[in-house]
Amino acid sequence: MASKLLRAVVLGPPGSGKGTVCERIARSFGLQHLSSGQFLRESLGGGGGECPRGRPVGSAARPGAGGPCPAHLRRGSAPLCPAACTGFPRTLGQAKALDGICELDLVISLNIPFETLKDRLSARWVHPGSGRVYNMDFNPPHVQGIDDLTGEPLVQREDDRPEAVAARLRKYKDAAKPVIELYKSRGILHSFSGTETNKIWPYVYTLLSSKIPPVLSDEEH
């Protein structure tokens, strides 16, 4: 049985690139990516499925727990929830609930300027069934308004519309501040600032490489 290697979460406001960073972490370090948003979509959609712990997604995302399946970064061969998880914890209450489940070794916080986030979110369209995200500025679908894989229509979420974005970002900032301060006080917070994920990623990769060996070479990642 493999031993624990690392437990971590990736924090960041809406549109900060958490999902992209976690997908790269998963690929470069041999992990799986768990998205709290995807768990909730599948659970609410009645699609069933299981958390990597073997529990139904609905129980992993039960409201009483304060959020979805807790965040663990482990090798794919390790027991219990082998994943890079985004979207949790979002509040101080969720962070304290997570304390009762596992002790985090590392917290990655993505700091992106407000104007950059506003532009990203306003240009974002999604495939409702899968949660696949497109950005009309730098990651558009092959056919405008159509999902690349299914051919189904894309939609713009109500909270991605320009008039809703500012309120979302303010709400995140208020909720996340005590969470970030908590992890900062524990000495496990690592913050990365910038306007492009491609420029932030090498620093995240270097940090994680100092904790666990990558499965891809520098050129491959």
Please give a structural write-up:
The structure is a single chain. With 221 residues, the protein is of the alpha/beta class. Helix content is 36%, strand content 12%. It contains 7 helices and 7 strands; from the N terminus they run E-H-E-H-H-E-H-E-H-E-E-H-E-H. The protein has helices at 18-29, 36-44, 57-60, 92-99, 114-122, 162-185, 197-209; strands at 8-11, 33-35, 84-86, 106-111, 124-126, 133-135, 189-193. Strands 1-4-7 form a 3-stranded parallel sheet, with helices on both faces. Strands 2-3 form a two-stranded parallel ribbon. Helix 1 (18-29) packs across helix 7 (197-209). It is globular and about 45 Å long. It starts with 7 loop residues before the first strand and ends in a 12-residue tail after the last helix. Mean pLDDT is 76; it is low at 46-82.
Keywords:
3-stranded parallel beta sheet; 7 strands; alpha/beta; globular; 7 helices; two-stranded parallel ribbon; 36% helix; transferase; 221 residues
Radius of gyration: 17 Å
Mean pLDDT: 76
- Sheet-strand content, in percent, reads 5-15%
Number of helices: 7
Helix content: 25-40%
Distance between the termini: 27 Å
Structural class: alpha/beta
Largest sheet: 3 strands, parallel
Regions with pLDDT < 50 over 5+ consecutive residues? 46-82
Oligomeric state of shown chains:
single chain
Biggest sheet, spatial arrangement of strands: 1-4-7
Name the shape in a single word: globular
SSE series: EHEHHEHEHEEHEH
The count of DSSP E runs of length 2 or more, i.e. the number of strands, is 7
Keywords: Kinase, Nucleotide-binding, Transferase
Pfam families: AAA_17, ADK, ADK_lid
Biased composition (Low complexity): 54-68
Protein name: KAD4 kinase
